[in-house]
Batch of 4 targets.
Target 1
Amino acid sequence: MVYIRAKKVKSDQYLYLVKSVWDSKKSTSKQEIIKYLGKASDVVKDDIPIDYRNDPKVLSVLAAYNPKDIKKREDATKKSKQKLYKKLTEGNLHESLKTYDEYTNVFSSTDFFDKILKPVMYRIGDEWATGKINIATEHVASNIAQTLVRIIMDKVTGSGKKKKILICVPLGEEHHLGCDVLETYLTIKGFKIYNMGTSIPTESILSFIDNNNPDIVLVSITLEDNLAAGQRLVKKIKEHVNIPILVGGYALQTNSTPKFAGEIIQNESLEEIPKILRKNHN
């Protein structure tokens, strides 16, 4: 059974998606947290993992918390996604940046990356794969999105006093938008980021690790065709040095995920990534 649990901190309510799991040793059920959802007034349907998003009990709880604010946020999110999709596929950087500015006047940059940019780029990737848009449009949209993230990144600052994180891709992977988004967000959170989001030989990555001693490696894979190369890269890093390795990206958003020598991250929001990094380094 899956349901939402609320926890009050001072005057605010915070929500958790939890499930009941049977403990055979104690002959009783216990709660396991599936995902921390955030402040109750800010949580919307898109924050729920897709497997539980249409659960009537979950939806009824969401509707109970500030329904007017939730409806306003859902409408703003829907409009912003539609606008960003249109401007990216038209190659309009100025209007794409304007969409970001308008959205983040009300919501956070994290919300923009998680709830606007990510689903829009997934949609563009799916439409290219199914022939709804051509390769030229996909390239234009991807290039504008990458430039947009770089502009956003230039606006942010971070202390760089937390752990050192290396972000890289396997040989042959040319998509690095996910790497740039991670660099931007984790920089805001104070991590020292080495963004090697360009396809380079594995030996060069190993040499960089030797010279810079990152605490954790993040491997991003966008295309399914690059999963095998990603497996080889993770295996080589693991054989070379004892370091935590996290693997994520659009190619991992499937039900038949291949095995990796590192930990796979699927359907996690940006807000969860620092927690995962801390857990893997402790």
Target 2
Amino acid sequence: MTYRADPARYDTMEYRYTGRSGLRLPVISLGLWQNFGGTRDYPSAFEILSHAFDQGVTHFDLANNYGPPPGAAEELFGQVLARDFRPYRDELIISSKAGWGMWPGPYGDFGSRKYIIASADQSLKRLGLDYVDIFYHHRYDHHTPLEESMGALAQLHRQGKALYVGISSYHEDDTRKAHAILKEMGVPCLIHQPSYSILNRWIEDDKTIEACAELGIGVIAFSPLAQGVLSGKYTKGHDGTRAAEKNSSLGANALKPNVLKAVDALGDIARKRKQSLVQLSLSWVLRRPEVTSALIGVRTLEQLKDCLGAVNAPKLSPAELKAIDAAAKGGMLDQRPNW
């Protein structure tokens, strides 16, 4: 059966401008990290992706290393594009990144021009696209001159392989430097993708979010649910969850008793608002005008629907924000980039 998008897909989603650009993103964007790898079959992937688009989620975020194995998420999304989403390409914002290890040897990681350009070309091939809408440098590289990494982004932009460029997990000083270098090259730094949640506020602590506002850079927050900790599922035990998986990316500090106690207290606040904890957490991230979108990752359709319940939710009152701060205080996580 040929997929036909819901005619009402734009009726309820909220869209925000990205910094001082003309590009608007949905307040909820869908990332394909970890959950769309080689073990995900086409029908279950399409069920989630098509429902998201039918609800106005136009932005799908990928990276070269998303899987597992690396590259698998781009390949799967490329199949969805070719088979079902192709008529809607101009309604989609598709992003990818380079910055983590992809192939052996000295040219398959970090931030050299050699690596970034080659990786972008590989991503386009896996996706079956001539261009992505946004291409990021995935992490700051202390061993490569920033002028080289930003020059690679500018080259992709000038070649039409990326309509916009951005950075991910850059601290304040490096964000300012990257913006200045790109500006000198005549290429705007559209967007910054940092981790940000109720329990992880490093972009507030080191003023990165304020720098983005000053410079006109949009902010899209990844891990707004602290990799599922703010779903409340870990307070019930770890069996069957990501934390139980071998080589889990979820650090042990995220599951300490003080963190889980904070999560329980936040759950009480959510119930008083008649929201799920997931929805409260997304509402909190989206409370700031600097934040263009909250980038979610889901394994199931039910998780996606829960997240979408945060769209157009009532704003948090000053009293609720104060209560959230008090509940979270004892369970804060330090997840700032440290490479």
Target 3
Amino acid sequence: MVFAILFPGQGSQFRGMGKDAFERYPGLTQFACDVLGYDLVALCRDNPDDMLARTEYTQPALYTVNALQMFERVRREDRPADCYLGHSLGEYNALLAAGVFDFETGLRLVKKRGELMAAASDGGMTAVMNTPAPRLFDILGQEGVEGLDVAGFNTDAQLVLAGPAGALRAAHAVFKERGIRFAPLRVSAPFHSRYMEPARAEFERYLKEFTFAEPAADVVANVTGRPYEKGAIVATLSQQLIEPVRWTDSVRHLLARDPRFDCEEVGGKSLVRMVGKIRTSPAPVPDGENRALK
């Protein structure tokens, strides 16, 4: 039976996270603080001024906590994985677990990524429930709402839109009128959309400063919903900033490989619940077309 380990991304952070892991790995924790230039333990413990909600702090904090929890799993000699998946930021932990780079390299990458993504502004993201992408495009197109991208396909019943604040407000008004369930996300910019192109270009240049190994086990990429291809680390990680998180495609890839595949999530259960919903969905919903409302 195929066994996958899942790593959560931004949105899974909470005050007090990582306490046990920090205490168990004081050396690595101090090293992370030195690389980042601030007290990561105090940040996670106290969350002063709600800093954990700020992208430039959220991403390194989550990466570090995920990594330490994964190191502890390895130390306990828990069941080894056949493949790894991470949701957005979590993909960096999946790549770390597969030996693509070491802890320090991953930390420096997510630090830069968080800074670049935090620098984007005038936009946001909204989760939309029970409305497949083609139908959603039709509705918003009829109402003249333009400029939104699909930023994530979490399950067949939930997708995420990203775009300028004005376009999202217009979309929210349409959703209310049509009785469509939605939930604005606590982010400051339209991640995983065309609006991140300046960040993508700069991040690609940064990625090229590093050398990466090929994954020792399959890592299913958000961008393609398929395992990383040889030599594609830089291109795939940079494209991830502007492409949707294809979580449904990623999970369906594993279901096609082994319908009974098992999985474990590091640090939580939200991704495991998504897997359960995808597994029991009666039919796939196409998500590869019309990703943008232009």
Target 4
Amino acid sequence: MRPAAVGRRPPQGVTLHPSVFLTTSGRGGPAHLSPLERFNTAPAHTAEAALLTCCRSRRWAQRLAAHRPYPDLDALLAAADEASYDLSVAEIADALACEVPARPAADTPPAAITALRAAHAAYESRFGHAFVICLDGWAPGEQLDQVLAGIRFRLGNERDEERAVAADELRRLARGRLARTVQEAQVGHDGAAAGPDSPSVAV
């Protein structure tokens, strides 16, 4: 299953999240600045808009934007984790409501697509939001099996238990999306590849 970003965002592609504060032209800042430096110096509303592509929690985005500047990527990711842990049940529910299932890869067998759709429908019927899981570290060919196994296993959770699991997966997704946003922009900045082989995925 092809890695894909999920949420109310543009279709799948190489760049998973709009890097509006990381571009080398326009409002993103001078080209000589690193992506993180451009993020640190971007207008608050610009930084928040980009952060919302990683996690659809307004307070999460506002908090990260307000605590700039960050000395390095690790500090930014640590702040993202801390902000995620502080979200209320209602804020997590709002963020989860903005996640939607990813489309399977074009070469996914029809039987697998049918099984995936049925699993998603069962999960959404039980818990009221899309299934989310971070697939960092899993090869593309293994991701479909991980998603199906994850849904089937988590369907046995009680609502409170699944809420906690989904919140942690959402945190991991936000962290991975944010890291990749900076790292992918760094590719354009210094010409060197960066970031994990397998992106964070919600499906």
